[in-house]
Amino acid sequence: MKKLLGGLMLSLGMMASSAQAAAPAKMYYGFGFADSSMEQLVGDDESMGTVTGTLGFQLLDFVGIELEIGSASDQASSVLSDPVFTYQAAMLRLGYRWDRAGIYILGGQVRVDTDGGNSGSENALGFGVNLFGNETTALNLHFLRFGDDGEITTAGIGFQYYFGGFR
């Protein structure tokens, strides 16, 4: 799987470098709040509040790279100070925009660090919707599922800002 992702990232980079002459990559950032569930070994889901941050590069109209970090806890006062788990994700983003709305899918790798000291790299899949209020800002609805068996899911709402506009 890592060879496949490495080859995909290499070909994406080559495609983006050839497209740089036509149009430079557009950068965007965002933040959001999500409800996460972490499937326990006994099968129970534990619901947690999550804070997320996103940094992305739109390489072509429909292809981008998105980096995301998140921190989750079952107590609101400890989301950032003492989280149950944190994650860092690097994903390929494929999407389509029309007028002031856009849909996208995500796929890539995520590193998860749990409160118990366990950490590891896992696959991540997700999708989302952007609803643009103007040329540079969007309301973002985002779903992400990661873990080898889909142990963690996040569903959230957030804000994204596109430098130079989304067109």
Distance between the termini: 33 Å
Strand order of the largest sheet: 1-2-3-4-5-6-7-8
Whole-number total of structural domains: 1
Order of helices and strands: HEEEEEEEE
Share of β-strand residues: over 45%
- The third-level CATH topology is Porin
Describe the structure.
The protein has 167 residues and is mainly beta. The chain has a single domain (25-162), classed as Porin, CATH 2.40.160. Helices cover 11% and strands 61% of the residues. It has one helix at residues 2-19; strands at residues 26-39, 45-58, 63-73, 85-98, 101-114, 119-132, 137-146, 152-162. An eight-stranded antiparallel β-barrel has the order 1-2-3-4-5-6-7-8. The longest helix has 18 residues, at 2-19. The model has no long low-confidence stretch (mean pLDDT 84).
Summarize the structure.
With 167 residues, the chain is mainly β. It contains 1 helix and 8 strands.
Main attributes of the structure:
11% helix, 1 helix, Porin
Q: What secondary-structure arrangement, pairings included, does this model have?
A:
Blueprint lengths: L1 H18 L6 E14 L5 E14 L4 E11 L11 E14 L2 E14 L4 E14 L4 E10 L5 E11 L5
Antiparallel strand pairs: 1-2, 1-8, 2-3, 3-4, 4-5, 5-6, 6-7, 7-8
